[in-house]
Structures are given as C-alpha cells and as structure tokens.
C-alpha cells in the first residue's frame, strides 16, 4: 500500500503552505502592478528632455486597474493626479502603485495630496526618490495622513519583488547614476561588423547596421539630452545627429575636438533645427572659433580637454543623459575616465577585415584578458539581421551613504551622542541645507596679509584662490585674481582644480597642512556675519552633518561613507563653538542680573 507524504502532513504544515502560496500570489500581483507603473513611466521618453520618470497605477481591492498615468515632462500634471482623475470614485479604498516616490520638485505636494484626497488607503512604492533632499519625504507625508505605505525591498521582500524593483531602478537609471557620480548618465553606442570593425580601412562606414538598427539609434538619441562625437567622426562621416523620430525632443549636439582640426562646412554647423556645442582645448584655432561663433555654434574651452571634465561641465549645466556616438579614439579615454555607464553594441552579420580598419574602442592599456571590463545585466536582442548587445559597465549604485564612526564625531562635537543622532546631508545649494555648501552665494570679507579686507563672492572662491596665495610667481598671482573674479563658485572651483592639475608647481608648498585652516577661517566668517545662517547651523545641534559628495573623499562623506567628511566636521566644530559662546553669553547675563 502506497502513502503520500501529504497524507501525514500536520495542520500547521498545511497552513504554512497555504500562507506561503497566498504570500507569493500577493507578491505576484504587487510586482505586476509595479512593473506596469515602471513601463508607463517610460512613455514620455523621446518626446521631452530627459527627466525623472514617474508612473502610477491605481488598482481596486478586486484587482481591477481603475486608472493610470505618467509624467510627460517636468512641470506638467503629475502621474498620480492623472491616475486619480482616471479612476474617479474607484479610488476609495484602492491601492496606488508608484515606480518611484513622488517628488518632481522640492516643496511640491500635489501628488501626495491627490492620493490622500481621493481616498487611496494604501500606496506601494518601487524606490525612494534618488535625490537625498526628496528621499522619504512623500513616504513620511503619506504615512502621516494614515495611508499604509509599503516600499519594495524594505517592507516587501521576495524574489518576485526583486524583479519588480529592478524595473524601477532601470527606468530611472539616468537619474540614479547622475545623482551618485555627479556626471550625466552616459551611454556608449556603436555598430560593428562580426569581426569587430566600425569602418573599412578607407574609413567608409555607411552602412554597417540595418535600417531597423538605425531606427533604434534614433530612439536612443531621443532619450538623451545630448549626443557627443569626436573630430574624426565629423571629418569622416559629416553626421547630422538628429533624432528623426517624427517630432518631439531634439538633443543637443556636442563635438569634442582638442585641436579644432574640423571642416569649415559641416552639417553640424547648421543650427537652424538643433543647437551644436563644440568643446575644445583653450586657445585652439581662435580664427576657427570665430567662424563657428558667426554660425551660432557655441564654443566652450577647457584648460585640459578630457571626458571627465567635459562631463562635469555638462552636469553643471543640468544634463541628465548623454549618448556617445564617437569612434574608438574618444571612446577609450571616456571609458578609462569612468564616465561611461552603459554600452549598446549593434553587431552586424558582416565581415570586412582589414588590418588598419578601426575598432569601436581604442587603447585601454590592458595586456591580459583578465583585465577586460565585464558588462553587467547583459541583454541580447535581435534587431532585423543584427544582434543588439547591451549592458552596464558600472552597477546601479546604492545612493544611501553609510557614515562611519559616530564616536569620532562625538569627540569633535559633544552635542552628538553615539546613540541618539540623526544625519543631515547637504551638497548642492538647492538642498534644504544647501547654505552649508561652499558654493552658496554668500560673499565674505577676509583680511589679507597686508591687513586689507577683501570681498570674496563665496567660500569656494576664497578657498580655491588660496591654493596660490603667497607663491612668488606672477602666474600664481594671476591665478588668484582670476579665481577671485570668477562669475560663479562652480567656475572658481573648476579653475582652481584645473590649474592645480595642470601646474602643480604653482601650488603653495604648505597647502596640504594649511588647507583645513583656510577653510575653517572662511566658514567661521560666513556663519558669523549672516545671522540666518548661524541660526540654521545651530538648529542642527545633535545631528551629524555630512557633505554628501560621492567623489570628494576628503571634504565629503564619499559614495559609501568612506570619505573623511572634513567639511561636515568643520561645520560641527563651528556649531559647538557657537553654542559654547551662546552659553557663556547667557551665563554673563545671569551674573549681571
């Protein structure tokens, strides 16, 4: 007689099985709705300038989709409002699924208010907002209104949920990468033959890939703020670099050329439909620069032209996503400098051969196969006769810094305890605590070595210029004046850092030992002469202050909390001093009475 194991299963085991099954079924529905929200969030791609992608799906308790919407562009009607309007009365008691926490603009509560007023009782969020000053705000606001909020990976966890979470990360990968790396999200795209050539030995390259693949390239262009090429591409191909997808967003066109050895007549100099920016080395072919300017082409000079500095510049200009369609000569330094985040490679079933035929990526300095860069999350897709291979060169970053050693911070400022402390992040001037930044527009007056008081436009101006103060060299003195006259803190920082890299001999010999004191004196002046800044600093008593720079490991906290955070430390030191002075002043007043 045969018996099944199930015949002897205990009631507890059976209940556990049923519970697990229901749990998995529930998560399957949750994941499906979140993936739908991520899918519709992507609908605006190619029709507006790249921006955070928000999607919302409202489902009733019976599992019926009642309404959905997506953000078309910044400043337009939020996805949540559209979904609520579509669902109407079905919102009562329903659940809203969001691929990302609301927060298109700091201080805008339209999305949260719409969900609350509509009677939504539960909200499932794919990811918290990547921007630190917005992260968690909407989640807290919804919960304070009595709405049940679940966040994927925090309140809901399973393999199915992980897949849905990945969809949310991918649809806003540009924003996430840009936030973490402080450069625009950059995609390298190229088409090559089966034997790895992007052109024949003669340079002819039209066409390697199929018409369907080229249509996909137009879509990629439409998703980007800008397209960047090198001088070789302009000379060889004379491209137009238009999206050609039937209207909508047209990305900026960028040409990166060190010598400006470019043709006087080119399609890219026609800016009637799409603007063009040429970035080059300072002083290169001034007469040609004038020619480009006469055509309306913008020329931007760099003391040292390299992909990292160029991308930092376009980050400062607010660019979110850039598509690199350059040849191997420019692709190699772009990869080496760490500004390329993703690769799209169209492989055509063709062989052209040729010892001197160019390849997609130039010299990277690798001598062993073990040094090869491996793509992450690789995808394969057949596009007409071609194979499209895509993947990330860098993993999607974790945007939550882990700041170590609160005990060490407590030694600097006794108001911070190791057990009860909060962390206040600051970085850009538009952050809630953006005034803590060296770049905030607060002029300071500082005494020079001659006893004269000089006005500096910002702490950053003062700090960068003092790298060269006291150096007995007319070039160094010119550097000081040039930085002092810089129109913005960003320009002052760029000038100081570039000169430091290019002419390390101009840096004062004691800089590494005095730079902390230089920063301290400037900060003390700033927070002493502006009462509202002093009050803001004192209001943070008991909190750890962290300059949330992911790349400055000296002044900032670093991407994963590995930074020394000296700017935050100095601010906490000043805060402690100001609090001590206030305490002594109060004691003196009491004694006088």
TrEMBL record:
CDD domains: NADAR (cd15457), Riboflavin_deaminase-reductase (cd01284). Pathway: Cofactor biosynthesis; riboflavin biosynthesis; 5-amino-6-(D-ribitylamino)uracil from GTP: step 3/4. This is Riboflavin biosynthesis protein PYRR, chloroplastic. Keywords: Chloroplast, Glycosidase, Hydrolase, Multifunctional enzyme, NADP, Oxidoreductase, Plastid, Transit peptide. The keyword Secreted does not apply. It is an enzyme of class 1 (oxidoreductase). It is found in: Plastid, Chloroplast. It catalyses: 5-amino-6-(5-phospho-D-ribosylamino)uracil + H2O = 5,6-diaminouracil + D-ribose 5-phosphate; 5-amino-6-(5-phospho-D-ribitylamino)uracil + NADP(+) = 5-amino-6-(5-phospho-D-ribosylamino)uracil + NADPH + H(+); 2,5-diamino-6-hydroxy-4-(5-phosphoribosylamino)-pyrimidine + H2O = 2,5,6-triamino-4-hydroxypyrimidine + D-ribose 5-phosphate. InterPro entries: CMP_dCMP_dom, Cytidine_deaminase-like, DHFR-like_dom_sf, Eubact_RibD, NADAR, RibD_C, RibDG_C, Riboflavin_Biosynth_HTPR. Pfam families: dCMP_cyt_deam_1, NADAR, RibD_C.
């Amino acid at each position: 007689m045969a018996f099944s194991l199930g015949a002897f299963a205990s009631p507890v085991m059976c209940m556990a099985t049923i519970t697990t099954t229901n749990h998995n079924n529930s998560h399957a529905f949750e994941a499906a709705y979140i993936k739908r929200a991520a899918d519709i969030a992507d609908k605006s791609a190619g029709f507006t300038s790249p921006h955070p992608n928000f999607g919302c799906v409202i489902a009733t308790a019976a599992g019926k989709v009642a309404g959905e919407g997506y953000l078309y562009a910044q400043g337009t009607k939020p996805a949540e409002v559209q979904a609520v309007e579509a669902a109407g009365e079905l919102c009562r008691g329903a659940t809203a699924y969001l691929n990302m926490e609301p927060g298109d603009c700091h201080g805008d509560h339209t999305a949260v208010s719409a969900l609350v007023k509509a009677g939504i009782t539960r909200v499932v969020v794919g990811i918290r907002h990547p921007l630190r000053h917005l992260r968690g705000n909407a989640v807290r606001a919804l919960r304070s209104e009595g709405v049940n909020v679940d966040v994927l990976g925090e309140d809901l966890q399973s393999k199915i949920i992980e897949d849905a979470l990945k969809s949310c990360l991918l649809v806003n990968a540009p924003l996430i990468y840009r936030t973490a790396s402080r450069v625009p999200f950059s995609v390298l795209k190229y088409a090559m033959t089966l034997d790895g050539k992007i052109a024949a030995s003669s340079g002819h390259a039209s066409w390697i890939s199929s018409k369907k693949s080229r249509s996909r390239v137009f879509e990629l262009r439409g998703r980007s703020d800008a397209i960047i090429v090198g001088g070789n591409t302009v000379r060889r191909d004379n491209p137009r670099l238009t999206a050609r997808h039937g209207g909508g967003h047209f990305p900026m066109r960028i040409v990166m050329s060190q010598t400006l050895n470019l043709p006087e007549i080119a399609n890219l100099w026609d800016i009637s439909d799409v603007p063009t920016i040429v970035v080059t080395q300072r002083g290169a072919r001034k007469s040609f620069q004038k020619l480009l300017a006469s055509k309306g082409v913008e020329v931007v000079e760099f003391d040292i032209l390299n992909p990292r500095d160029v991308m930092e510049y376009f980050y400062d200009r607010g660019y979110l996503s850039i598509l690199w369609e350059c040849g191997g000569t420019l692709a190699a330094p772009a990869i080496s400098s760490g500004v390329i985040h993703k690769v799209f490679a169209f492989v055509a079933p063709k062989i052209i051969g040729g010892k001197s035929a160019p390849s997609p990526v130039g010299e990277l300095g690798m001598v062993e196969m073990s040094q090869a860069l491996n793509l992450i999350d690789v995808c394969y897709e057949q596009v007409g006769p071609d194979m499209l291979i895509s993947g990330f060169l860098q993993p999607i970053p974790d945007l939550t810094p882990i700041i170590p050693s609160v005990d060490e911070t407590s030694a600097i400022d006794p108001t911070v305890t190791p057990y009860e402390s909060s962390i206040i992040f600051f970085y850009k001037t538009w952050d809630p605590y953006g005034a803590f930044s060296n770049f905030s527009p607060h002029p300071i007056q500082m005494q020079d070595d001659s006893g004269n008081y000089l006005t500096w436009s910002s702490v950053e101006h003062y700090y960068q210029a003092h790298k060269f103060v006291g150096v007995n060299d007319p070039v160094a003195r010119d550097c000081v004046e040039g930085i002092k006259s810089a129109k913005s803190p960003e320009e002052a920082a760029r000038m100081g850092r570039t000169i430091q890299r290019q002419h390390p001999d101009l840096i004062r010999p004691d800089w590494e030992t005095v730079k902390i004191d230089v920063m301290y004196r400037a900060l003390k002046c700033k927070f002493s002469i502006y009462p509202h800044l002093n009050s803001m600093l004192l209001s943070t008593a008991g909190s750890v202050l962290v300059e949330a720079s992911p790349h400055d490991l000296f002044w900032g906290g670093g991407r994963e909390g590995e930074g020394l955070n000296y700017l935050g430390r100095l601010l906490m030191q000043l805060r402690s001093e100001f609090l001590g002075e206030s305490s002594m002043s109060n004691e003196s007043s009491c004694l006088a009475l």
